[in-house]
Amino acid sequence: MDELKPQLEERRKMVDEKATKYRTLRDECNENSKKFTATRNEMNGEVRELIVQVREQREIREQMNEIVREKKSIRLEANKKVREAKDALNEAKGPEAAPQRDEGRRGRRDRPDTIHSLRRELIRLENEFEMGRHTGKNETKVMKRMKEISAKIQKMKFSEDSNTDLKESREALRIAMEAQETAHAAVEQAAEAAQEAHDLMLQWNKEVDNQREKAESAHRKLRTSKKEADKNHRAYIVSLRCLHSIQDMLRAMRGASAGAGQRPNARVEVQDLMGKLMSGETLSTDELMQLQRYD
Fold this sequence. Notes:
295 residues, mainly alpha, 7 helices, 87% helix
């Protein structure tokens, strides 16, 4: 029997070291589980907040799209009024001002002169004259043509100014075109706001996906950490049982040598602690150490 004691002592030390190692690993895994739980909960909280932002931007986008539709309807009506004003202006100018639809060079030459077309020709000739493209006899010819154009413009302006219907038609066209421009600007502004809300919604959506992935990653790590903690806890329990069995044998051997029995109170106390541990109760550090020091 004395020959078994050194072997049992060696085994007891080995099992005690394993129990300590498993307890340490279990505690580390439990600490990691707490960290992963906090990270997961934090990420899930951010996801919920971001989803609220996504919904708000979606609502803004839908509201702005509705405004865009309304503004487009107003612009469409403004475009109609511009066309009507142009038709009224052409009618006030007379049949000679009606737009020609002949194709080719001859058709362009047959079109009647307007103040706008004459001014455009005058500006072209002035630019060419300044660049020195017309010299000699051609210079005299161009100068004469420029004077004719200026005189024709003045005559046409005088004629139009004396035509009350034409003046009113021009004013109506100007007002209609201003309304058209205002309506178009309103459409673009609403469309831009809708696009900004849409882009921001997509940005928040992407951030939701990123934060959700982080939360899921933390949850996966949490599950792995819990599994590791459970595995190390089971190994710790097995180590404690082995340790107690060895200690019981050593105590019995010492008791037999001394002629005395083992201490029942210590055994009962250890059994109580093991019962708590097996039922899932949390033991203090001192109680855990007592389980390993049981002798």
